[in-house]
Amino acid sequence: MESYKILLSEEELPESWYNINPDLPRLPDPPLNPQTRKPMGPDDLSVLFPMGLIMQEVSMERWIPIPEEVREIYKLWRPTPLFRARQLEKALDTPAKIYYKYEGVSGPGSHKPNTAVAQAYYNKAEGIKRLTTETGAGQWGSALAFACNLFGLECTVYMVRISYEQKPYRKSLMNLWGAEVIPSPSQKTQVGRTILSEEPGSLGSLGIAISEAVEDAATHEDTHYSLGSVLNHVILHQTVVGLEAKKQLEKAGDYPDLIIGCCGGGSNFSGLCFPFMLDKMKGRNVRMIAVEPTACPTLTRGIYAYDYGDSARIGPIAKMYTLGHSFVPAGIHAGGLRYHGDSPALCLLYEEKLVEAVAYHQNPVFESAVLFARTEGIVPAPESAHALKCAVDEALKCREAGEEKTILFGLSGHGNFDLAAYDAYLAGELVDYEYPEEKVKKALEELPEIPAYS
Ligand SMILES: *Cc1c(COP(=O)(O)O)cnc(C)c1O
Questions:
Q1: CA distance 449 to 37
Q2: How confident is the model over 394-413, as pLDDT tens digits?
Q3: Nearest CA to ligand 1 atom 7
Q4: Is 165 strand, coil or helix?
Q5: Is the distance from the beta carbon of residue 192 to the nearest atom of ligand 1 less than 6 Å?
Q6: Which InterPro entries match (predicted)?
Q7: Range of the domain at 306
Q8: Closest of 252, 248, 276, 271 to residue 261, by C-alpha
Q9: Which of 53, 79, 143, 300 could form a disulfide with 108 if both were Cys (CB 3.0 to 4.6 A apart)?
Q10: What is the number of domains present in the chain?
């Protein structure tokens, strides 16, 4: 009998996360304090994060045990299924085998609770009462609201005003899980009040919302800030995805020739790929492709340099591929892929050519997403559909070449709250955006000056 799903039992849920730091070809350049421009130490970060997470940020231990309380909650939806996309393969008439790891089975509907639950746990363990964060489209905000609710923490989400008004259902989910959702810019913070006094009708931006969430956390003793991508500890927590996928492929008697994931800040891509990277560094032939929107092509068009993580320049300065901290991407429907930078570890691996990257326009991405919904039945999140599009292209190349490759891609979430985007696609109303060349130059001019240090 041909199997469609490769499942693991709850006992097979990984017991540790995989930390890639000790296996990197070299260590990434350290994050810098935005005021002093000197490498940041644990003390610089302790206003915003608990020690448990700060230690993970810099850990050189290869395996970090997943606390039992976190594993218990993971069991609500983990291990997640690995699917063999047999109906899609048939529709494409490809000899390639296509597998996808599906993270949409979590309550919030994406991979994001893998880190939200861990972050809530470590904050709770250190006596924190409330977490603040920002959200654009609402995926991260709803994941953190879900996690805080389970651990009895309060949660304050600064939601970019335009999304707050246009995407009411993610806000409803956050409220349902007990979070306070504040349209940003708001009167709650100094940053917000300043912006509103200058521009009362401001629709907000992710950069402004980050600044508000950070200010709120930094000015309240019992409150910390939480970030849903980019940082090492976030990537670490997401490796549970790749560790499971590796076991599942073993069960199926397969190993991927190609691993594909969409890339916003790099967490679902890295989480899926890093457990396979060790094999690659030992010489195993496995390609890894990060997929971006052409409207926000961080790896494919960005610059590898130190840059600010946020537009208000209050967070750490990181060495990464960047489109510039003042970059405001076009309003594409993959809201989770609109960050100007990427995870420093992933950027280093890209610079070292261990990872490849491609960028796609949103119309062809939605075309693949519709094919997927009509064959496999799941409506992909617009972000995840970028990975799918690349998998489809690679499977079609296999058809041309008559090659029987094994392709693994990450389906990081479902798109059940993104149906307005599908409506727009079906009505032929989606616009494709190219990233203009002048912007690369502008980003270069705005990079912070970094003094030499040793
Ligand atoms: C947030 C999000 C992404 C992008 O974030 P990464 O950190 O790059 O993974 C991708 N897919 C979904 C479904 C998301 O919610």
A1: 9
A2: 999 999 999 999 999 999 99
A3: 267
A4: helix
A5: no
A6: Trp_synth_b-like (IPR006316), Trp_synth_beta (IPR006654), Trp_synth_beta/beta-like (IPR023026), TrpB-like_PALP (IPR001926), TrpB-like_PALP_sf (IPR036052)
A7: 5-10+68-109+233-444
A8: 271
A9: 143
A10: 1
